[in-house]
Design brief:
Layout (H helix, E strand, L loop, with lengths): L5 E7 L7 E6 L7 E9 L3 H9 L7 E2 L3 E9 L11 E5 L12 E5 L3 E3 L6 H4 L3 H14 L21 E4 L4 H12 L5 E4 L5 H7 L3 E3 L6 H10 L11 E4 L4 H11 L5 E5 L2 E4 L8 E3 L13 E5 L8 H10 L9
Parallel strand pairs: 9-10, 9-12, 10-11, 12-13, 13-16
Antiparallel strand pairs: 1-2, 1-4, 3-5, 3-7, 5-6, 6-8, 14-15
Helix pairs in contact: 3-4, 6-7
Length: 326
């Protein structure tokens, strides 16, 4: 009779309750799956929203979606990884993939080897914001990011203004770098003044401090210095904050008919306090007075496997026996 293996995991057991350590089953890898001993896990806003606000949670729920660690077992159909490899990845669909536990069982195609010269603690900071950047730019803004990038690639909208509100956030810094890598040049980043030098080094043409009372005027002035073309002054906006009062209120003043706005979900309608739970909304289009003709989309990174770019990458890295998610 087989012995059931277990390990410890960190779970939210009730809204706003202290996190608990629970025992969960260790799932042996099958076919093209890999068992990884988790050594680092990235904390993301979703962990906060699930623990503090009960967002999309069925208690008890193990938290986390981004890990780095060491491969301890591999399935019979694994081709590119071996026991002892240092890996990092981003997954969440089943409990066996959740990050806040001692072991995770991942499909091989959702893991990458940590490059030589990088620490696990560095690698674990990459998957979530990088995937979010690609997902936001391609699915929600509908801008082209062909992978791999052709040597002579020149984007059609290379000079169109792209506004990133929350440019110094993890997602904001990755969006800046990805857009610059692909040749988008007219990037406007909103963040605290202390981050402006760093954001400029990542590719921001203009930086604006959201603390300034005339922040929206500065944004529009920056957009006006671009080459005049028909359409909205700022055709593309990414809101990395997703706060009704902290970001959407301002962005509704600069978005014009024809602008596409991608908002990180959930929208925070009310921040948490000691005595009050947070209030969230999943429809950013209903949380501000947008001008008619503005397209507002909520970014849901956890559906990235349905996006053509990632499906293509998956197809290239797995055999025909691996299930396709669409």
């Amino acid at each position: 009779m087989a012995v059931t293996r277990t390990h410890r995991a960190v779970a939210t057991t009730a809204v706003r309750a202290p996190l608990e350590i629970i025992e969960v089953q260790t799932i042996s890898p099958l076919d093209a799956e890999v068992l990884v001993k988790v050594e680092y896990v990235a904390s993301t806003p979703l962990d906060l929203h699930q623990a503090d606000g009960g967002l999309l949670v069925q208690h008890p729920q193990v938290l986390g979606d981004t890990i780095a660690g060491t491969v301890t077992e591999v399935g019979a159909k694994v081709q590119g990884l071996a026991v002892g490899d240092k890996v990092f990845g981003f997954a969440w669909r089943d409990q066996k993939e959740k990050g806040y536990q001692e072991f995770v069982t991942f499909p091989e195609y959702l893991l990458g080897k940590v490059p030589a010269g990088f620490k696990l603690s560095e690698a674990v900071t990459v998957p979530d914001p990088l995937v979010t950047a690609f997902h936001t730019i391609t699915k929600d803004l509908e801008l082209s990011l062909p992978w791999p990038r052709p040597p002579d690639f020149s984007p059609q909208h290379a000079d169109a203004p792209v506004l990133i509100w929350g440019g110094s956030s993890s997602v904001g810094t990755f969006i800046l770098q990805v857009l610059r890598f692909y040749g988008y040049r007219n990037l406007i980043a909103v963040a605290s003044k202390s981050h402006h030098g760093y954001l400029s080094s990542l590719g921001a043409r203009v930086t604006v401090d959201y603390h300034d009372s005339d922040v929206t005027d500065q944004i529009m002035a920056a957009a006006a210095t671009s080459s005049g073309k028909a359409g909205p002054a700022i055709p593309y906006i990414v809101d990395c904050i997703g706060s009704m009062s902290g970001s959407l209120l301002h962005l509704a003043k600069v978005a014009q008919s024809g602008t596409t706005v991608a908002v990180m979900l959930p929208v925070i309608v009310r921040d948490a306090s000691v005595h009050e739970a947070p209030v969230y909304a999943m429809d950013p289009g209903a949380q501000a007075a947008w001008t008619e003709g503005v397209v507002v989309r909520g970014v849901r990174t956890h559906f990235y496997l349905e996006v053509r770019l990632f499906l293509a990458v998956k197809k290239d890295s797995t055999d025909d026996n691996v299930r396709t998610h669409s």
